Structures are given as C-alpha cells and as structure tokens.
Amino acid sequence: YIVKPSIESSGAKNVMRLQSDSQKIFINGKHTTFETVEKIIKRDFLVQEFLEQHQILKNIYPCSLNTFRVVTLRMDGDIHVLQSIVKFGDKGNFVDFTVNLGGLHCGIKDNGTLSPFAVDLNYKKYYTHPYTGYSFEHVVIPQFPSLLNFSKNLHRCLLYFDMASWDIAIDKNGEAALIESNLIYQGFSFLQVHNGPLFGNFTDKLLEAKITRY
Questions:
Q1: Order of strands across the sheet with 176-182?
Q2: Beta bridge partner(s), residue 150
Q3: Which DSSP string do the residues of the chain spell out, in sequence order?
Q4: Exposure of 43 by Cβ count < 10 A (0-12 exposed, 13-18 middle, 19+ buried)?
Q5: pLDDT tens across 85-136, in order?
Q6: pTM for this one?
Q7: What is the rounded CA–CA span in Å between residue 37 and residue 193?
Q8: CA distance 145 to 162
Q9: CB–CB of 105/84 below 8 Å?
C-alpha cells in the first residue's frame, strides 16, 4: 500500500510505502505502527492500494508508478488541455519525478508518442532511461486521447478553479486513474521545457481578458 497525507504531499513529502505481514505493518521496510505514522503525518492521511501500471510504462522504469501531468484550462465555456508530460522515477525510488528525489520527465506528442529524450532535475537530456537503459523514442502511450479526455472530464467537476494540474496513471488494462489533483504550487517549468510557453495559443486571449478586467 501507499500511505500519504491527504493534502500537501507535494514533492512526495511524507509519502511512504506500507506492507502488511503476519498482522504487522512495515513502512519502507521497517516495522512500525499507525501511531508512529500519525506522529509523522500530523494531519489526515490516506492508505491507498498499489496500482499496477501498464507494461509499457513498467518497461521504462518499474520501481515507481510513472504518472502523467496534464494541465487543463477552463476557457470560453469549455475545458482545454494546455500541456502534458510523463514523469518517471530513478535510482530505485518508488515515487516518480520530484524535486526532492530527482527522476526524469519526458514530453508527449499529440498522438501519444514520447519525445526521443527525457530531462532530469538539472535539465540534462537522456535518450534512454539511466536505470533500465530503455529507449524513449518510438514509445506510444496506449489510449492517450482517452487519458486527456479523462483529465478534461475531471476538471468539468471542479467548478471553482479555471486551471488545474492532474497526476494521472494508466493501469495494466490501459485505463486512466486519478492519482492527485494540484491546484496550488503546480509548477510549470518542467512542462515548458518540452512544450514551450504554458498557455500556447491561449496566451493572447488570456492577456487580453486580464487587461480588460483590470
């Protein structure tokens, strides 16, 4: 299982791996109790089942749940996808790309094909994953359009925020699964490395709307 704070777990803060064996629990391999977890995570926490990811993503990096960051925008009465990337863990870590633990992020073309290279925290390019040696080029993400539509449908249920960043996984059957929503401290520099300016074709319209409003 995964144990994590219900909110404010940015950068994998206090995200832990839990195992149960012979009526005992272990956090990151060490015997512990839920009372100890409550001392680490001061507020509410979640216990979530491990999600088995699609084999294509597991081939690239098997130790973490590799997730897609999809940014959506409400504009002109509809929800639009601004940008998307996929994040991979590294060095045996069980979480994907974070500022604290490193990892890689890779761009995705509109047809679901990965960029030929990924980038680490220091913006160094990798054409193969350094942990597995697996090449990023020509990898096609299954049912990628469905993943984007899934993100847009999530945002349609979120009425009070015009922009959101979603962490989405693809399970072993190719179905999209929500891992986390990000509404503050969304972080965009690692997306713009692959896709250019965040708002793209919406930039002028957004600037005009803000200038007119204020």
A1: 125-126, 114-119, 104-108, 78-88, 67-75, 163-170, 176-182
A2: none
A3: -EEEESS--GGGTT-EEEEEETTEEEETTEEE-HHHHHHHS-S-EEEE---PBPHHHHHH--SS--EEEEEEEEETTEEEEEEEEEEE--TT-SS-SBTTTB-EEEEE-TTSBEEEEEE-TT--EESB-TTT--B-TT-B-TTHHHHHHHHHHHHHT-TT-SEEEEEEEEBTTS-EEEEEEE-SS---HHHHHHHSSTTGGGHHHHHHHHHHH-
A4: exposed
A5: 999 999 998 888 887 778 999 999 989 999 999 999 999 999 999 999 999 9
A6: 0.86
A7: 37
A8: 21
A9: no
Tell the residue number behind the tokens 């299954």, with chain if given: 142
* Token reading at 91: 């060095």
Query: CA dist 198 to 108, 173, 193, Å?
Result: 14, 31, 10
pLDDT one-digit tens code per residue, 140-192: 998 999 999 999 999 999 999 999 999 999 999 999 999 889 998 888 888 99
What's at 94, amino acid-wise? F
Q: CB–CB of 172/55 below 8 Å?
A: yes
How many residues are listed for the chain in this entry? 214
- What is the token pair recorded at 31? 């015997």
